[in-house]
Structures are given as C-alpha cells and as structure tokens.
Amino acid sequence: MRTASALAAPARIVAPFERIAIALLGFALLLAPSGAAAQDYPGGRPVPRTTDVQRLLADARRRECVERVRLAFQAELRGEWPRAESELTRALALAPAEPLASTAHYDLGLAQARLGRPTEARASFALAVAGDPDFIAARVNLVAVDLQRDDLVSARRDADELLARAPASARGLYERGLTALRAGDAATALHDFGALLARDPAYATGRYEFALAEMKAGRFDDAERDLRSALALAPAYARASFALGAVLLHAGKRGEAREAFARAASDARDPALRALAASFEDQAR
Amino acid sequence: MSPRWARVAAPVALVVLILGGASLARASLDELAAAQTLSSGVPDLLGPIDAGGRTGWDCPPERAARSGRVHEALLPDETGR
C-alpha cells in the first residue's frame, strides 16, 4: 500500500503540468495553418483513378510526350541536335495539346536550323506560331530564319506581325530594322534602330546600323557623326571604320577616308574585310 | 569642218574625255565603297524551351523575346568585327 501511494503522489503532481502542456500544444496547432501559409506548395496532380482504356492511353501518351520534349531539351543544351530532332519528331507524332505542341515545334525548329535546314526550321517555327500566336520567342526565331534564308518579303511580314503582338520587343525592332536595311527601306530602318538607340544610346552595333540607314537615305553628314559616335563607343569596330571611310570619300575628304580605311584594315579580324579596306586605302590616294 | 578646227577640237575632246573619266572613276570609287558597307549579321536564334518551361511564360527565351531592353534581348554585339 505504501508503495502504491508513493507512486500515486507524483502522478497527482505531474497531471496539472500535462494539462497545461496539452492546452499549449492545442493552441499551437490552432495557429499552425496561418504560419504555414508562407510556404506555398504546388497543387498535386490527381492520381488517375480510372479503368477506362482510352483515358489511360491518353494519359500515357501525354506523359511520353512530356518526357520526350524534356529529353530533347537536354539534348539541345548539350548540342546533340540529331538526338533532339528525333525525340521531338516522335513527340509531335503523338499529337500533343497546347502549349506542349508549340513548344515541341519551336525546339524542333531550333534543331533543324542548327542542322543546316533553314526551310524546315521556318516551317516548324511557323507551326509553333500557328499553335500559339502569342509565342513571341517563336516569332523572333521565325524572322531570324527568314533573314538567314534571305527571304526579305517573309521576314518583313513576320517582323511586322511580331511587333504588332509585342511592340516593345527590342529583338523585334532589331530584326525588322535589319530586314528594312537589307531591302533598302531606309525610313523603317531609321525608325526601328532609332527606337533602339533611344532606349540604349551606348549600343554601338545599333548606332552603326542607324548610320547605314542614314547613308541609304542620303544623309551623309548625319551618318558621319553617328559612325564617329559608334567608334567612340567601340574604337576597334572595323566595319564602322570602313563605313566612315566610304562616307568621307563621298564628302571628298580623301585623306581622312584613307586614314579610316587604314584603321579598318588594321582592326579587322575578318581577312576579307582587311583586304578590302587595304585596297580602298590604296585607291583613295 | 576645216582641218584647222579639227586640229583644235581633237585635243579639247581628249581633255574632256580624260577629266570626265577621272570624275567617273572617283564617283565609282565612292559608290563602290558605299556598296561594300555591310549590315550586321542576323542575331543568333533564341535557345531551347523545356516541356514545363513556358508555365506562366517564365522562360529565358520568351523573356528575351519580349524585353524592351537591349542587353536583356540578347542582341548581337558586332563591334569586334
């Protein structure tokens, strides 16, 4: 009996503490949901609970498609373009839904362009844009491939559509400006490169393109000023030195033109430009 | 035309031809130089996109394509050419 009462006594002492601890724990649990809200978990995908054969097949196709696009993406990052093309062709044969279909067409276009097949690349980027008209990266690459193919009519149309969807796109302005410059449309080139320079006056490549547009428009004095600005930003810019030589020749400043050609010949990394600049340096004497 | 006029006209025509030729050569040199100025190359293609990469358009190629800033748009730098 003595033993039993000795054991019961501590139990009576502990019980109030236990009650307090349980009350505190309950209080903490009540507060827990608001504290955990800072950590946001993505909603889990429901586990398919069906025995319907068609639905199970569709789920399996979707999973295979995602996995093939993922494998192709990793292959492209490693520069394994044939592997990427193979995976993407098989993924697209499974007729995926959007946005996976346009992503697969985009990645396929990239692989085809890298494999030296710009016409097929153009078709793939066009399919990506058809699948999702707001897919601006696909529109940008579509214009780039048009330019690579020297298809200036398509490039202009695709660049206009790109800028209609994304008017602020610097990439769109650059690509349309380049298209216009190559097509001899000085007014559009001046507008687009001018808009780029308004955002970043220190972009030397843009200033060079702007100067070329000024030359096409017959504004040789403005072109000279902008080429000198481009050279102030990038003193070893051989193409800008060569263009400056051409502008100075036009102005009858043969001595200065010769200096500009000499500078271009000295700075050029491209052997063709170096030889051309040296030849003009001789002829300007 | 008398032989005397012919003797005067021939050197004058020769001088006119030489001066005209020199002027044409100079003009063609200007035009040749202007014709040889090349626009920059086509910008490189934007990179690949993963299967889940376009969720909420949060992917680097799409951001570069939409950006209004020159350095974010991955525009070419041809100043070394």
How would you describe this protein?
The complex is a heterodimer of chains A (285) and B (81). Chain A has 285 residues and is mainly α. Helices cover 79% and strands 0% of the residues of chain A. In chain A, helix 2 packs parallel to helix 4 and helix 13 runs antiparallel to helix 14. Chain A is elongated, with a radius of gyration of 33 Å. Chain B is mainly alpha-helical and 81 residues long. Chain B folds into two domains: 36 residues; 37 residues, no CATH class.
Largest sheet of chain B: none
* Main sheet makeup of chain A: none
Number of strands of chain B: 0
SS summary, helix count of chain A:
14
Give the distance, in angstroms, between the N- and C-terminal Cα atoms of chain A: 126 Å
Strand content of chain B is: under 5%
Low-confidence segments of chain A = 1-11, 31-41
The best one-word shape of chain B is: rod-shaped
Tell me which protein chains meet in the greatest interface and how many residues each side has: A-B, 73 and 44 residues
Taken from the alpha-carbon principal axes, the silhouette of chain A is elongated
Class from helix and strand fractions of chain A: mainly alpha
Task: Please write the string of helix (H) and strand (E) elements of chain B.
Answer: HH
What's the total helix number of chain B? Answer: 2
> How are helices and strands ordered from N to C of chain A?
HHHHHHHHHHHHHH
| Rg of chain A, Å, rounded | 33 Å
Q: What's the assembly state of these chains? A: heterodimer
Radius of gyration of chain B: 30 Å
Mean pLDDT, all residues of chain B: 75
Helix content of chain A: over 70%
State which percent range the strand residues of chain A make up: under 5%
Q: Structural class, from helix and strand content of chain B?
A: mainly alpha
